[in-house]
């Protein structure tokens, strides 16, 4: 399939590479041409603008920053909308506001262009290993047609509902995940305040009723104090702005999410933007210093 | 082994039955003798007081309400302390304050009586199926000696540290678990506010970075609206009083746990004491009504 790809960050590089590997005819565009150099060497075509990319593609995938970035890519004078022919599809895999997804879908529909919002969970590791979870909003028939492409990128593809529903699911994912990180941080902070070996507490809790992927992965980072690997906390900080804007717009009371957002604010203020979000435990330690050295 | 057992509630009944089944010489005492009737029929000996139970036991296991209940059982005039011979061991599997566990351990140690705090996770189902997770504080040598008894009751037995450390781990377990329940409730509430199928959102999120036992078990109850099965929310409400008292005593800042505790307070006020804690979602729905009916 003739596919265009925009958004060659950590995750996008891996995803674009999988698409070339699967035999697709891939074109790329990037703000900085250098970001595309490796992929062009591997066979991707370079396009001079998003419009040029859209004009030669049956499918364009975007994997960029947030709502404003996607809107700009679509609506700018040399943007995707200026290039797409009727029948083409834009699949946005960025994390953006559900309302933005719905607006873009409506604008495309008027011109006979398809849209899916398909945000992902799994981070750079999931992108590299093609094991992303993909939450899809939009027409089921469009998803069915593109299923083979999604299967090149992820291992769990779920159709949630209409346009925007994929983004709602992603917001839910982030709310639950970051709340679990903060709750794990508070639990291990309390254990340390009691002088108890936090590594043993984490081990005891895994596999029980408090067990989760977060306790396994981020809990280990809290125990070791190594916050260099993982997902930049600034990305979750961005997600929480989206989530709280949704809550505001819909009149949805989200007391825990709101409190988690404040802890993320504090982590940003501490210079933790590029640390893994497990560093939320350092916000508590800064408030009430604890020694988390363990014997295990 | 000659074992005494006190606390014949939902979980204690199953645990005592497993001990008889494993061939132990079991004695019981209960506030209301009727609670012990079934077990006495199955071979347990009835004792007239905790002191009498302690006097004939190498090991006494208690599985009762909270700190005050355990202190009363030990310290009353016809309590365990009045009956124990030196060399006996008291294993308390209730959920109590770490400080209470430490005080009782110290009092016993002066008289040559052993102590382990060994709170559990897994609920009535885990007790019935003998798959409880058991978090143990106290002397490792005492645990090693009693390991075969614990293995009759649970499938994950972890030594956390000194006396009280088992209770600290239990507090950590409850903090993480109930925060995950509230975060899941908020996520599904937000999905419903967006008109998105909450069953599909839950399915999409399980197995991903937000995946947890809580989303699997309690998430299903939120989707179905069935809060009759599971663990009474009043027990978690009790646990949160303990956790926040610990936080207060130690000067540990626990912002998310504090907010979760407020939602539990609201659930109690709504008459949800004997509902499963998944009913936390009804607190949000009461604030901002949502239709969570799904098509799945």
TrEMBL record, chains A, B:
Positions of the 6-phosphogluconate dehydrogenase NADP-binding domain: 2-161
Gene3D superfamilies: N-(1-d-carboxylethyl)-l-norvaline Dehydrogenase, domain 2, NAD(P)-binding Rossmann-like Domain
Family matches, as SUPFAM superfamilies: 6-phosphogluconate dehydrogenase C-terminal domain-like, NAD(P)-binding Rossmann-fold domains
Domain (3-hydroxyisobutyrate dehydrogenase-like NAD-binding): residue spans on this chain: 164-284
Active site (record annotation): 170
GO molecular function, one term: NAD binding
Protein name in the entry: NAD(P)-dependent oxidoreductase
Similarity comment: family membership: Belongs to the HIBADH-related family.
Keywords: NAD, Oxidoreductase
Coiled coil: none
GO annotation terms (biological process): organic acid catabolic process
Domain of life: Bacteria
InterPro entries given in the database record: 3-OH-isobutyrate_DH-rel_CS, 6-PGluconate_DH-like_C_sf, 6PGD_dom2, 6PGDH_NADP-bd, HIBADH-like_NADP-bd, HIBADH-related, NAD(P)-bd_dom_sf
Pfam family, one: NAD_binding_11
């Amino acid at each position: 399939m003739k596919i265009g790809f925009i958004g060659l960050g950590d995750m996008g590089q891996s995803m674009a590479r999988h698409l070339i590997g699967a035999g697709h005819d891939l074109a790329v565009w990037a703000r900085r041409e250098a970001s595309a150099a490796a992929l062009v060497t591997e066979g991707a075509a370079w396009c001079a603008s998003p419009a040029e990319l859209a004009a030669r593609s049956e499918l364009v995938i975007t994997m960029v920053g947030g709502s404003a970035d996607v809107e700009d890519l679509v609506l700018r004078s040399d943007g995707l909308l200026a290039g797409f022919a009727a029948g083409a599809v834009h699949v946005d895999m960025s994390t953006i506001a559900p309302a933005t997804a719905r607006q873009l879908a409506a604008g495309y529909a008027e011109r006979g262009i398809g849209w899916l919002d398909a945000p992902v969970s799994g981070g750079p590791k999931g992108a590299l290993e093609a094991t992303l979870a993909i939450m899809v909003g939009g027409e089921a028939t469009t998803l069915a047609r593109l299923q083979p492409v999604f299967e090149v990128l992820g291992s769990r593809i779920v159709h949630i509902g209409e346009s925007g529903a994929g983004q709602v699911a992603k917001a839910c994912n982030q709310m639950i995940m970051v709340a679990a990180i903060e709750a794990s941080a508070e639990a291990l902070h309390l254990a340390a305040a009691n002088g108890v070996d936090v590594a043993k507490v984490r081990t005891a809790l895994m596999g029980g009723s408090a067990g989760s992927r977060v306790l396994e992965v981020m809990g280990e980072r809290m125990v070791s104090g190594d916050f260099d690997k993982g997902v930049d906390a600034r990305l979750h900080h961005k997600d929480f702005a989206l989530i709280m804007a949704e809550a505001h717009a819909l009149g949805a009371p989200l007391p825990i999410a709101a409190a988690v957002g404040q802890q993320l604010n504090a982590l940003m203020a501490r210079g933790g933007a590029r640390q893994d979000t497990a560093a939320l435990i350092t916000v508590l330690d800064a408030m009430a210093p604890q020694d988390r050295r363990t014997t295990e």
